[in-house]
Amino acid sequence: MWPTPAIAILTGMPDTPAPELSYLAGLGRIGRPVSYSKGAAIFHLGDPGSFVLILADGLIEVSVLSQSGRKSVLAWVGPNEVLGEISALDGGPRSADAIAVEACRGVVVTRAALLSHLHDTPEAATEVIAALCRRIRNASDGVARHALTSASARLADCLLRLARDWGTPAADGGVTLSRTFSQANLGAFAGIARENVSRQIASMAKSGFVTHSAGVLTIHDLSALESLRDDARV
What we know:
- The protein has about 230 residues and is an alpha+beta fold.
- It has 9 helices and 12 strands.
- It has a 4-stranded antiparallel beta sheet with strand order 1-8-3-6.
């Protein structure tokens, strides 16, 4: 079952979303429902920015490939998030690939409808500015992560980011990730090889910082991961 704000976005039901979701609800009323199967491309690098997608259910991976073919994950987009605002706003080409890593449902809003909505609804423009600022901060975080020379520090920073975005409280006071991320996913996000992720996770587990079982990752000691990350910045 979708969360209430997503139902309101997709069906026009009279639910009143939380203030921070008012922008999404407004867009939902002028868009059209869409669905994507697992593995489907939402868009590719270089495609025109002709629409934004409000995701109601599922998970989308945003990534780029290097000239050598190595994938770097820039972000994962989840429910009640918007994908593709930057190129839809400036009319430029897409700056990354966006692939559904789970079956997804959402609402597509054309660029023309988006610009018209922002022109007619000034408060929505404020929400867009806030969303773009979050994108910039996330991009800055990614640059800082890849500047870390230690694999353990990169992975620690990656896990802390995922805990912030996808964490749910664990029984021991730690955080369990609500989504499953493979070691290949974690490596592409942290900028290290999958084999190195395996070694680092094993080392962190031995120290009692994390557990990783059946794809479910729980962080038991956030402060220890913060120390691993911060010590590499000194």
